[in-house]
Design goal:
With 424 residues, the protein is mostly beta strands. The chain contains one helix and 36 strands. The chain has a five-stranded antiparallel beta sheet, with no helix packed on it. The chain has a four-stranded antiparallel beta sheet with strand order 9-11-15-13, with no helix packed on it. It has a four-stranded antiparallel beta sheet with strand order 14-12-17-18, with no helix packed on it.
Amino acid sequence: MPAALNLVDRKAFTLRLRFLTLLLAVMAILAGCNSSEPGGAQTPVTPDAGTANIEVRHILERAVPTSVDSFRFTGTDANGNIVFGPETRTKIATILLTGVPTQTRGFRIEYLSAGTVVGTFRTEVVLEPGQTFVIDNPDWVDTNTGNAATQLQFQAQPSVLAPGDTFSLQVAALDLNGNPTDSTVAIALSGPNLDGTLTRNAVDGVATFDGLSFTTAGTFQLGASSEGLTPATSNPITVTSAPQPTTLVFRAQPADAQTFLNAVTVQVVDQFGNPFAFSGPITIALGTNPSGASLQGAQVVDTVTGEATFSNLTITRPGTGFTLIASAPGLTPATSAPFNITQGVFAKADFSLVVPAGVGLASTVDGGDFNGDGRTDAIPPAIGSRSSPRPPTAITRAPSCPSAVSCGPTLRTSTATAGPTSCR
């Protein structure tokens, strides 16, 4: 640097030099950003999600006020963020919107009169890149009267009833997009065999019908209507038939026993399995009978409020797997659970044979069926006194047997006389 430069010139020269150095550095950075060579800085690019078209046809078909002079269109994504518009178009019958992002999920049309929104329409859209989504004949909600009701919908209703059961249901007046309204319109119900007050005014957009009933059984659908609104049809309501006695069931089953059964109870029920206050006789009998036994005791009992109790039943022979069958006219019979009998019924009277000493009996005494096997059991000949669990039915002895046969107090007494014939 020349020595002649004064201090002021030297400072100015230094500032210029620094400026040139900074300028060159900035240019180098910009060149690197635009470079495609490896290591060069890259500007991030958001990939294009694609666009589609939305065509709105017959936009004037509905009762749009003549004051409407234009429409404003807005698209939102799934999170409610605006991704298209707002875009305003003058009033014509068909409008084509291009360049609508495919992430658009909600689409709104605003009806404008001198820049003031007087009506709206909302819908959901699914857009494919390069394709055209068509909205035909859109309806609209008059913003001057709030969200005006356009349709009815059943909201609360029963599904199963019995004849005469009272029930309630609700019908809502909704706007075009299915949203609640504050409508107070009169709503009428209709349906076969339906009793009750069938016309109600909506309160905050909902009409409540209570005290309703059906008079007959069947499956029905109700209708709801209101002047100027789209009517609604309910889901099917099934009205069951009136309770009727149909079936017998064992409420107290027979249990295993030696001879005498526990108290057995049979109940009459309706078609729904509920106890029914049936009045009439119920008969009980053996069903499965593994040993050919007999049932003894009171086998026909009148019901008390639909229930019959059999309290003195016995089985004459032992066996495994007995069942009882209960029946009544016009009702489905019932079969009990299996049970076992270990002994069976037989007479339990004591008796004695009294034969003088030295006199023998030539044959045996018929004592009856003691072990329940269906065969007659014999008492062997006896001298003196002998006890047996059952009295003999016949006594046979040899000739010349003066003696006496003495039976217990509840049985017969026979006196045998000597002679060539038998003593009975």
